[in-house]
Amino acid sequence: MIPVLGLIGGILIGLFLQPDVPLWLQPYLPIAVIAALDAVFGAVRAVLDGIFNDKVFVVSFLANVVVAAFIVYLGDQLGVGAQLSTGVVVVLGVRIFSNVASIRRHLFRA
Amino acid sequence: MTDQPAPDPQRPQQQEAQPAGPSRTPSAWRTMFRMARPRATRANAFAALLAIVLGFALATQVQQTQQQGLEQLREDELVRILDDVTQDAARLGNDARALEVTRDRLAGGADSSAEALKAAQERVDTLGILAGTAPAEGEGIVLTIADPGGKVTSTLLLDALQELRDAGAEAVQIGDVRVVVSTYFTDTPDGIEVSGQRVRSPYVIRAIGGSATMASAMDIPGGVNESVRRLGAVSTVDQRDKVSITALHTLEEPQYARPVPAATGSGS
Lengths: 110, 268
Fold this sequence. Notes:
heterodimer, A: mainly alpha, about 80% helix, B: alpha+beta, Alpha-Beta Plaits, 3 domains, five-stranded antiparallel β-sheet, three-stranded antiparallel β-sheet, about 50% helix, about 20% strand
């Protein structure tokens, strides 16, 4: 409950403050957000599987974000930033879909 | 992914209506609710903090994407946009040049038609003077024949007119009658009629043309002045720098004569 409230509160803060994304962060923020979403859905699935661990969630969240940003950074340095970003988004999207499917099976038995 | 797409969240009732083990469904929900309870652990607070950060980043990124400008596009995208803009500029430049050519042509056409209009207007003026439908003024003479005895005949006036024409008169007015091609003179018991209109002594003949030439033409032996004197009348010639001829001839539609269209290059 508290994380859900935190998520809503964060969205509201972003909507009210309307901050500008710093230039150095602009390529990484979208990928980092998607990686964090992947971590969140993975956490919900872990809850339903009964293997949720707060520490694991926090670590996986941070690791996801950092690794995603690092992959994009590496891709930019190698000159394949756009393609690698697409690849990361695809992989994370697949993972999110898989997690959502698992959550759905748990909650709706379907 | 061989999974079927996620079910519509609007229809959870339909999903639950399917035969399934009812014992495990509440347990899954119960697990969720149990985990949703606030727990005052450090990890839980940290997770909440991360959730706040995630929501903040999400909203920020969404707004950033909505107001996205050129500055955060990648190099290849910028190159593509630049190519598009360059191609558009080249295409629009071609269009602009074509339109300029058209505009110049139209403007030239307007100029030439204005020239044609001016030439046509000059032609109309000239023809109007010749046909007697337009007033005229210019250098010329005023020939006045005072005939108290009534001896002057239409023949004399016709001779005078012919002399003036020979001397280069371009527009002539006798009394209030404009002299044109169809002008005629008749003697009546009451006097002289010019084109059916009575003229009385003194007869005033206004002629535009070379004034010196016409004045001397009146004076030649056997000419107008001498004939007038022989009849006991008095003629005076007044050379003027500006003679106004204001009488107009009314054109009548020819009953039989029809204009022949100007021959064109077809050779027909």
